[in-house]
Design brief:
5-stranded parallel sheet, Exostosin GT47 domain-containing protein, transmembrane helix
């Protein structure tokens, strides 16, 4: 009798618990939006993992990759937005994700139950982690027009696609890839929405680490206030982790063992977004170390001290020369620049004959390397005649002159060019001890020709390479190499002639592009947009005009200037757009923008993946007018960093190139005593 009573009591208790839980669930479900149900039911930031369920975990899996395809979801509740912002920030599997409109629609059956697991989050809240994400970029704020009056979360879908095009195995000058024709991409396989093109979504695929909500009707004053509030949070997020030892600062809390030449071990995805590039850069600055010097030098300790000073830079507020919103971390940049001016000494080797060495050229699309050579060799502030005091050693050769002097037409071979550089390195290493001390790790070169990466990767691989052809997939090493701006200089006597453009209100064209059909991407661009829309001024090569007036006129009178890659990832249009105060729209997967160590490119440019060309106009139109005006204003603020002057001035392009080289050297330095 007693056992029966216990059994009945137990069953009743279980039923009571079940009913109570059901009531609680129903109450929470009806009272709160479903995002709050999730947070309240799964406390301590535990969310179901991906499997056969229709929602994914916020915690990354060990094999996490970037999420590719997601559907648009509108949720006015702020907590829910933070949840899904955090979901978008994590690196998740390449699977389609569907966020249900009402509640969580888990697939029925035991298999779905087996697929559900949990990840533990750290002690910081989701809201806090979102607040640390920093500024929202232009491309991240593009959304479906039907959500213009909401504070909706924008999750961008995969886009419609076009047709196949085949590229030649040549560089932009029409010469073939001699040693590695397989590096030239052959096609992009675009599959169009054949049956229902009107259903092709309007979208882009920006860096998913910072996809977030945007208000379409927020006032300028509020936008400005939000901008100001994000500066310190963005700066903190872009400080590289500090290591213990000689460079540890007062805020150092991470134990990190220096690693030599670990750059090749950092994995990169097939298409690397700007967000991923920033992560790789921070990882490299935290872990990459150059070759340990064979003997000690006072300059090593100076570099280590500079690193500590930069990592613990005082907060900069309202510097009249630096508009904080265009920088990754304006405080670190200002302190680093000051230390460069106070400390840096560069030794320039005198060996080598013209025209390949010590022979700058100052016009054309490869002029960056020539202008830097001219201004560096004439500089009195940074150049030293005592190599023992040098923090950096400059190898003053021209990759363009090397190609002009030594390439044999029709040979399809770079071997003699590479051999020339090998002999040059042998000469300076035999005559001077400084190359041998670090294996060339404190040496740098500046090369803008397309072939510079392949010509220097064998015998100058440990050097800091400033390259216009800054391609993640072609050996660019984050934390060591530098993306060199490709500048089309038309007038060597006055490189800033015709600077500027029409005001924003007088820019009548939505978008402009003109250029030769180099590579596979530009034919795709013209296929979709040439003569298709009066707002889209998309052309092949324009008819010749005096001083290229037609091209410049379009640049000056367009809101957005399309910077589509040619045979290589780089294009002079990026700097040209800034020069003529046109917002650059960069379409070049895996291109590392110039001065990435310093500049927040998403704050003043639009970056679109190559596969999204069919939706180009919709993407640009979906950027609110206020956002465009902000982008255009910031172009003017960043412009002084991209201007050549016969006599260099503070923060101009010469100093910015030198600073990027200095900055990477500081963060890769290692003492023999470390």
């Amino acid at each position: 009798m007693g056992q029966k009573f216990v059994s009945i009591f137990t069953k009743s208790l279980l039923w009571l618990i079940a009913i109570t839980m059901a009531v609680i669930f129903a109450f929470r479900y009806l009272e709160l939006p479903y995002s709050n149900v999730l947070l309240s039911l799964f406390s301590a930031c535990k969310l179901p993992t991906s499997g056969t369920s229709t929602f994914h975990a916020t915690g990354p899996s060990p094999d996490a990759e970037i999420l590719k395809n997601v559907t648009m979801f509108n949720q006015p509740n702020s907590v829910g937005e933070h949840v899904f912002e955090e979901v978008s920030k994590t690196r998740m599997s390449r699977e389609n994700v569907t966020y249900p409109r009402n509640g969580f629609d888990l697939e029925p059956g035991s298999e779905s139950n087996k697929s559900i697991g949990f990840y533990e989050c750290n002690n910081s809240s989701i809201v806090d982690s979102v607040k640390r994400s920093g500024n929202v970029s232009a491309t991240e704020q593009v959304g479906d027009s039907s959500y213009n009056n909401t504070m909706g979360l924008i999750l961008l879908t995969n886009c419609s696609r076009g047709e196949n095009f085949t590229s030649k195995h040549e560089d932009r000058s029409g010469r073939p890839y001699a040693n590695s024709p397989e590096k030239a991409p052959t096609y992009i396989d675009f599959q169009p929405y054949a049956n229902s093109p009107e259903k092709a979504p309007t979208c882009i695929t920006p860096p998913l680490s910072s996809i977030t909500k945007v208000s379409r009707n927020i006032t300028n004053a509020v936008l400005s206030q939000l901008d100001n509030e994000t500066i310190s949070m963005k700066e903190e997020s872009f400080r590289p982790p500090q290591k213990d030892g000689n460079t540890s600062g007062k805020n150092s809390s991470i134990n990190r063992v220096p690693k030599e030449n670990q750059d090749s071990n950092i994995p990169v995805p097939e298409v690397t977004s700007i967000s991923e590039m920033n992560k790789l850069l921070l990882q490299s600055h935290a872990s990459y170390r150059s070759v340990r010097p064979k003997w000690s030098s006072a300059v090593d300790q100076e570099l280590l001290h500079a690193r500590s000073e930069i990592e613990n830079a005082p907060i900069v507020k309202n510097d009249p020369n630096l508009y904080a919103h265009i920088y990754q971390n304006v405080s670190m940049f200002k302190r680093s620049y000051e230390l460069m001016e106070e400390t840096l000494k560069v030794y320039i080797y005198r060996e080598g004959a013209k025209p390949i060495l010590h022979s700058p050229f100052l016009t054309g699309i490869y002029a960056s390397e020539g202008w830097f050579m001219k201004l560096m060799e004439a500089n009195k502030r940074f150049v030293t005649n005592d190599p023992k005091k040098a923090h950096l050693f400059y190898l003053p050769f021209s990759s363009r002159k090397l190609e002009e002097a030594l390439y044999v037409e029709g040979s399809h071979s770079h071997k003699n060019l590479i051999q020339y550089l090998h002999d040059y390195v042998d000469t300076i290493s035999a005559k001077h001890p400084f190359w041998n001390r670090t294996g060339g790790a404190d040496h740098f070169l500046v090369g803008c020709h397309d072939w510079a990466p392949s010509e220097t990767k064998l015998h100058m691989d440990k050097c800091i390479r400033a390259l216009c052809n800054a391609d993640v997939k072609e050996g660019f090493v984050f934390g060591k190499d530098v993306s060199l701006p490709e500048t089309y200089v038309r007038n060597a006597l006055n490189p800033t002639r015709e600077l500027g453009g029409n005001s924003a209100s007088k820019r009548t064209n939505l978008a402009f592009f003109a250029g030769s059909m180099h590579g596979y991407l530009r034919p795709i661009l013209l296929h979709h947009w040439e003569n298709k829309d009066p707002d889209m001024k998309i052309f092949g090569k324009l008819p010749k005009s005096k001083g290229n007036r037609n091209y410049i006129h379009y640049m000056k009178s367009s809101k957005y200037c399309i910077c589509a890659k040619g045979y290589e990832v780089n294009s002079p249009r990026v700097v040209e757009a800034i020069f003529y105060e046109c917002v650059p729209v960069i379409i070049s997967d895996n291109f590392v923008p110039p001065f990435l160590e310093v500049l927040d490119w998403e704050s003043f440019a639009v970056i679109i993946m190559e596969k999204d060309i069919p939706n180009l106009k919709s993407i640009l139109l979906s950027i609110p007018e206020k956002k465009y005006l902000r982008l255009q204003m910031r172009i003017k603020k960043v412009q002084h960093h991209f201007l050549w002057h016969n006599n260099p001035i503070k923060y101009d392009i010469f100093h910015m190139i030198l600073h990027s080289i200095w900055y990477n050297r500081v963060f890769s330095a290692i003492s023999i005593d470390t």
